[in-house]
Amino acid sequence: TIGDYFMPYSVKIPWETRLAEASEAEIKSRLSYFSTATKYSIDVGIDFYCELIEDDSPVVPFYVQAKGTEHFDASWGAAVKKSTIVYWINCSHPVFLIVHDEETGNCYWMSIEDQRNNLIQKILKTDSETVYIKMDTSHILEKGKNKNNEFIKKIKADIASVQLFQGWPSFKGEGYLKLVPDAPRSQMELQRVTENARKVLYSLLI
Questions:
Q1: Which site among 5, 21, 112, 174 is 20 to 30 Å from 83 CA-CA?
Q2: CA distances in angstroms from 86 to 6, 38, 47, 141, listed in the order given
């Protein structure tokens, strides 16, 4: 009958969908204390494009992948597509994975840059289309002003590491006195640094 087509509650929104949206909202609210956080309208393996704010101005870009879980316990893990991880490690800005624990309300973060070499090795060693990522409770994204200095410092530190991976080593530190860049950590980085240096020298000659 026609009444069957207009039965209430015919559209269902799974709990997993609601948990994901609630977790994204909670993570964004905490990021907003010290950065801008713009949600991507399509699924590209990253949820937020962010910019760290200093002196009321956006200064440093970074990315965030947001996740939600009902029970974090002592650790949390998930299988992530290889293509997503490759995308993360080739991003031009640092990527962070942040997981919201619905049970406790805590948000935990992990630097993908810290896991770069480990993730590359996992990708190369497995025939699976996914790689298992695990994180613990050692880093918490706090709620409030001036409560995430550890996270902010890590964003800045990861920028230098990302640039080195791309073959553009940068001087470390802030202000006028800076430290020399880190040396390439792999043959790939050395090759990229060499190629970029060659391009710069060639551009000066023409």
A1: 21
A2: 46, 22, 16, 25
The model carries a pTM of 0.85
| Helix, strand or coil, per DSSP, at residue 64 | strand
Q: Tens digit of pLDDT for each residue in 48-71?
A: 999 999 999 999 999 999 999 998
Answer yes or no: are the C-beta atoms of 91 and 119 closer than 8 Å: no
Question: How far is the first Cα of the chain from the last one, in angstroms, to the nearest whole number?
Answer: 79
Residue that the structure tokens 């991507």 belong to = 40
Task: Using the structure block, give the residue that is written with the tokens 């060693």.
Answer: 125
Count the Cβ atoms, other than its own, within 10 Å of residue 11: 5
DSSP secondary structure string for all residues of 111-143: ETGGGHHHHHHHHHH--SSEEEEEEESS-B--S
Beta bridge partners of 109: 98
d(CA 24, CA 37): 11
Is 72 exposed, middle or buried, given 0-12, 13-18 or 19+ CB atoms closer than 10 A? buried
Residue 26 near residue 47 (C-beta atoms within 8 A): no
Q: What are the tokens at 74?
A: 């002592």
In contact, 110 and 119? CB cutoff 8 Å: no
Task: Give, as one character, the DSSP assignment of residue 172.
Answer: B
